[in-house]
Amino acid sequence: MNRLDVPPLEETEAKDGAAKDGAATAEAKTEAAKSADDGYVPVTGRSRKDVEHMRECEALVSAKTASDYEHVVLAYGVLWALFAAYGMFLWRRSAQLRQDLEDVRRQVGRSGS
Amino acid sequence: MGQFVAVCGRLPYPCQAGYCPSPSGKSMDKLKSILPYLLLLAALCLFPGSVRTVFLETPIERTMGTAFKIFFFHVPMGWLLMLMAMVSGIASIVQLRSGSKTAAAVAQASAEIGVLTGAGVLLTGPIWGDATWGKPWTGDARQVTTALLWLVVVAYLLVRRYGAGSSDRLAAGLAIFGAVNVPVIYYAVKIWKTTHPTTDVVPSLPSSMWAAFWPCLGALLLCSLGLMAIRIRQLCLADTLDELWVATTPEGEQA
User: Fold this and answer.
1) A111 contacts B252 by C-beta, under 8 angstroms
2) CA distance B84 to A83
3) pLDDT score of A33
4) C-alpha–C-alpha distance, residues B199 and B184, integer Å
5) Comparing C-alpha atoms, which of A16, A8, A110 is closest to residue B250?
6) What is the average per-residue pLDDT within B87-110?
7) Which residues of chain B neighbour A87 with C-beta distances below 8 Å?
8) Which residues of A touch B74 (CB under 8 A)?
9) pLDDT in tens, B101-126
10) pLDDT tens profile B206-231
């Protein structure tokens, strides 16, 4: 999936058109007049399409960031797991060598006596 | 008994009282034995700072986003793989020319660290590729040559581990072949058209990114050198113990 499949802003702007913008603004003004009594203040001067487009972009960025974090955590986890595994291997090998040393000591004691 | 004392004197641990000759360089031996742990300690001190710098102080790269943070450990792992392959190759040449067991131990230990860092670069690379290219493996020249080097180093270790008595020379040849592959990896991005950036891109990074990169490289290098030093000591000790075992076993029991 291409995470950056954002619809171009020009496209949506073209669809909106100036006439639509004008109609939307007029509608908002009428609504504002209607609801002035109950204290409701509608947002004016912003196209719904623009806001939706912005939200869409934000969602894409957010998804990309979340996916990036997952990748970064996975990469760092793999890295440290590898070093930890090798450290464990060295530790086990060291214990085995100490055991071998003890065996040799016993062998020396046996051949000495 | 003389042979036993000669072998016993090379052991890093004090052995049977009365047998061990007091080595003149006792302090040197002590330094040699604590050096790996000092290196690991230094790496341990650097790691938290480097991770903090990478995640909290380095700006997010504009085109690749947060996934670029993988760069700070992926690239040093690649460099370490190449360094270890070179060390292994050079030590193998010394081993072939002089028959030195220490050189053989250095070659094997560096090859093991090479496999470790190689696995790191070959695993973190596709993770980063998946995040930025949308594909974990594009089969470009740098990926393929790096995987080839890793396989050569693995083959070297397998021959060392499971080969017959004289296979050490064959293994050394493999290590030298691996070292020859290192420049191929470096120049792969210049010779062939690859998804990886060219060698000019990394040096052109802003100073804020270099400030995070060096501690990461330092921490990984110190950690690798510490582990390598421990492994070299282990391999030398194993050799000495083998000799000691042979020297102390009565001839009739050896068969």
Assistant:
1) no
2) 15
3) 66
4) 13
5) A110
6) 94
7) 227
8) 75
9) 899 999 999 999 999 999 999 999 99
10) 888 888 889 999 999 999 999 999 99
Q: Which residues of A touch B77 (CB under 8 A)?
A: 79
With 50 as the cut, is the pLDDT of residue B13 above it? no
Inter-chain Cβ pairs, chain A and chain B, closer than 8 A: 92
Q: Write b or e for each residue in B161-170: b if 16 or more Cβ atoms lie within 10 A of its Cβ, otherwise e.
A: eeeeeeebee
Q: Is the dihedral of CA B55, B59, B64, B68 positive or negative?
A: negative
Quickly tell me which residue has 């696995």 as its tokens: B119
Query: How many residues appear in chain B?
Result: 255
Residue-range domain boundaries for chain A: 9-112
Whose CA is closest to B130, among A39, A100, A2? A2
Chain A neighbours among B 96-155 (CB < 8 Å)? Answer: 112-113, 116, 119-120, 123-124, 127-128, 130-131, 134
> Could you give the CA distance from residue A17 to residue B128 in angstroms, rounded to a whole number?
42
Distance CA B110, CA B182 (A): 14
Q: Do A86 and B131 touch (CB under 8 A)?
A: no
Alpha-carbon Rg for chain B, nearest whole angstrom, is 22
Domain extents in chain B? 60-205
Half-sphere exposure for B103 (CA within 13 Å, toward CB)? 17
Q: Which of A76, A86, A100 sits opposite B116 (nearest CB)?
A: A86
Contacts of B231 in chain A (CB under 8 A): 90
pLDDT band at residue B28 using 50, 70 and 90 as cut-offs: confident
Contact flag A75-B15 (C-beta cutoff 8 Å): no
ipTM: 0.79
* Nearest C-alpha in A relative to B11: A101
Q: How far is B44 from chain A (nearest CA, A)?
A: 12
Distance (Å, whole) CA B150 – CA B185: 11
Interface contact B16-A108, CB threshold 8 A: yes
Per-residue confidence band for A1, with pLDDT thresholds at 50, 70 and 90: very low
- What 3-state DSSP class applies to B198? coil
Chain A hits for B4, CB-CB cut-off 8 Å, are 108
Min Cα distance A95 → chain B (Å) is: 10
